């Protein structure tokens, strides 16, 4: 048998080859993690998730596991998020915030018993109890009385495997938003991986069609709010210009009905592209517009604001204050025919996640202390975007209670 010897020059070539391969693999991992972190910082969770999963398979670091758990939570895939929160708890030094986020995710996925166990671990960390932790304890243990007499919650025939939300009654139709695939290009959201949000309507015969007069196929368009005449609509849409963070923020727009056609009025004058302005809710008389923003100077997270119609146009935005807004997030306001305010919140005590609340009007600028609507309208999932018919006998809302994606539900109120 011949004795094959490796010469020095060949040995160096082999070492060099393996060095290049190792460096390439390391560079690829660094590049992958950098891209994942960039997507994460831009809230593009659908693009970050597969990169983080590949990174964990190669390099199982706690910070990557936590970001993957957060990414799944942000797009309401709580069962997947729970797997990675559980992995994060195996590290030596667990940030107490992880216990709270895990408990939130467990509640949202319908497991308050396990959430209570995780909250006990949080209390063992000797970190001072926070408003959030106390609210989560209440969510696990408190029974909230129903505000309305409701026998059943009906799942209506507009729901898909994608998100449907922001339902409102409009004439003989229900108008709603959905991120189901639409348009020729079938563009996708980098946050959820679903389609872009568009506005739709369904008539009494069950026929669904796109609200083409408002939608732009390359922009998110959602959250229609009509005045009492049905001839004026306010809605949310991406700005066509990016802000300093290279993000196309959400802005408020309006349109009016003229000779049977919707004519766009353009962006509302108080909006600024540096922050989000969204979820409009016009009062029955059309003189007061409520909306949600993350603009500076609020209570924290997203807050509810109001502007008033004057002879010179819309007034400056006014924050509804700490009775309504919390250090967490509030959203999706609605004003009924008696000028009572409905909204969803993560900061007021409830079942966990977003719950729907009512605050009775005192003088259009001031509202009563919020009351949780209770079950069956609220659940352990996210419950948002409540609205009423003019006679207040029917209600619509969205909930992630079934499968993590938002579906629209109908209730008959007695």
Q: And the CATH topology of the largest domain? A: Neuraminidase
At CATH's second level, what is the architecture of the largest domain? 6 Propeller
Strand/helix succession: HHHHHHHEEEEEEEEEEEEEEEEEEEEE
CATH superfamily of the largest domain: TolB, C-terminal domain
Distance between the termini: 95 Å
Verbal overview:
The protein has 414 residues and is an alpha+beta fold. The chain folds into two domains: 8-141, Tetratricopeptide repeat domain (Serine Threonine Protein Phosphatase 5, Tetratricopeptide repeat, Alpha Horseshoe), CATH 1.25.40.10; 150-413, Neuraminidase, CATH 2.120.10. The protein has helices at residues 8-41, 45-58, 62-74, 78-88, 96-108, 112-123, 131-141, and strands at 150-155, 164-170, 173-178, 198-202, 208-210, 221-226, 232-238, 250-258, 261-267, 277-282, 288-293, 303-310, 313-314, 318-319, 330-335, 341-345, 355-359, 371-372, 383-388, 394-399, 407-413. The strands form five sheets. Strands 10, 11, 12, 13 and 14 form a five-stranded antiparallel beta sheet that branches. A four-stranded antiparallel beta sheet has the order 1-21-20-19, with no helix packed on it. Helix 4 runs antiparallel to helix 5 and helix 5 runs antiparallel to helix 6 (112-123). Mean pLDDT is 87; it is low at 1-8 and 14-27.
Quickly list its features.
alpha+beta, single chain, Neuraminidase, 21 strands, 26% helix, Serine Threonine Protein Phosphatase 5, Tetratricopeptide repeat, 5-stranded antiparallel β-sheet, 7 helices, 4-stranded antiparallel β-sheet, 414 residues
